[in-house]
Design a protein that fits this description.
The protein has about 350 residues and is of the alpha+beta class. It is built from twelve helices and twelve strands. Helix 1 crosses helix 2 (about 20-25), helix 4 packs across helix 5 and helix 5 packs across helix 12. The structure holds zinc ion (ZN) (2 copies).
Length: about 350
């Protein structure tokens, strides 16, 4: 029988619901880790999803990479996204961020990712030529239909093939594989670390009170997170490292190097980790602070606009949602994040409306 604290602990890493976690953990074989590791193609698919999400710009959401929970199910894991106030933005993240775009020298997204089935806010995806599966949840259906139609029109216009349901490699994917096949081998080598991070992604939310999380990748082997904190809500790097290397839910990370002045009372640090034994790959964790009151207020407004839960907004910014921005003397005074986000959303809206007119 699994104890309640074990369920609570696991949920901090996965974001699962209480009932969901209890059920999943109850079915695990005796002695299995609470967050099992994926193998082979499955690990590769999950690592590719993490890589693609890190490479697609997602900021101003209190959820890491817009993800609400990751259910590390044995046969078909689930990644649930938060649609927030901009479901079209989420649909674009999936349509352009996860599925391949580009071609010979610039392939963004995941080569060979295909839709197996879609409907009811769920998209089941797999990799061409493998049994690897993943369910993407939380994408509103109308937004997804719009994004898919838009990408089909775009592909037609430039003489490409939209990858979503295409039977084999698209010409772009094929050209990339011929030209840069070694990339994929390198990505495959680091997939154990990528999958392990994705399966624990929510610890970056429950274990650290950042204002903003930006992702990046480097070379073919490094997954990176840059966390920005309000100075008053700083999470010490040791706290997050303890979570990541926790005896029960851990990844066996080995610290490699740090440039950090925390010991001298300063803030702002960067720590590199090597992946677990027998798995190559690096993890690059950066901590920054924002001290200006009006900049923190700007984050607060952006988070409010994007629909972040108010209790989280208060937890990370220390003020109630939508609090006014008052500039301190000497501030540049340009706080246009919300206006920028609004313009982006309006642009998308217009684009979809045009697409619908053309299609009818
Ligand atoms: Zn530090
Ligand atoms: Zn200001």
């Amino acid at each position: 029988m699994l104890s309640d604290p074990a369920i609570d602990l696991c949920r901090r890493y996965t974001g699962e619901t209480w009932a969901g976690a209890k059920e999943r953990l109850g079915k695990l074989p005796q002695g299995s880790p609470l967050i099992p590791a994926a193998q082979g193609d499955q690990a590769f698919l999950e690592a590719e999803v993490l890589r693609a999400l890190l490479e697609f710009p997602t900021t101003y959401t209190t959820r890491p990479l817009r993800i609400l929970r990751v259910i590390p199910d044995e046969t078909r894991p689930v990644v649930r996204f938060a649609a927030d106030s901009d479901p079209d933005g989420l649909a674009d993240l999936i349509a352009w961020g996860l599925f391949s775009t580009g071609g010979k020298d610039d392939l963004r997204g995941i080569r060979g990712l295909r839709i197996i089935e879609a409907g009811h806010g769920r998209i089941d995806v797999g990799l061409l030529g493998s049994d690897a599966r993943l369910r993407l949840e939380g994408i509103p259906e109308a937004a997804w239909r719009g994004a898919e139609a838009h990408r089909h029109q775009w592909a037609q216009r430039i003489g490409e093939v939209a990858p979503f349901r295409h039977g084999g490699p698209t010409p772009g994917e094929h050209a990339f594989a011929l030209e840069h096949g070694w990339f994929e081998e390198a990505w495959r080598e680091v997939s154990a670390l990528g999958s392990a991070l994705l399966r624990r992604l929510l610890i970056f939310r429950s274990g650290a009170d950042w204002l903003d999380m930006a992702g990046f990748t480097k070379h073919a082997s490094t997954y990176g997170f840059r966390l920005t904190f309000a100075e008053s809500h700083w999470t010490h790097h040791d706290t997050l490292i303890e979570h990541l290397t926790h005896p029960v839910c851990r990844i066996a990370l080995k610290e490699d190097m740090r440039t950090c002045a925390c010991a001298f009372g300063e803030r702002g640090c960067r720590i590199w980790f090597d992946g677990p034994e027998q798995a190559v790959g690096r993890f690059d964790l950066q901590f920054l602070t924002d001290q200006r009151d009006c900049e923190i207020a700007e984050y607060n407004q952006a988070l409010t606009y994007t629909g972040s839960p108010s209790e989280e907004n208060i937890r990370v910014t220390g003020r109630r949602p939508g609090a006014a921005v008052v500039c301190s003397p000497g501030c540049h005074g340009r706080h246009d994040t919300v206006a920028f986000l609004r313009r982006m959303a309006e642009g998308r809206h217009k684009e979809r409306a045009q697409g619908r007119r053309k299609a009818s």
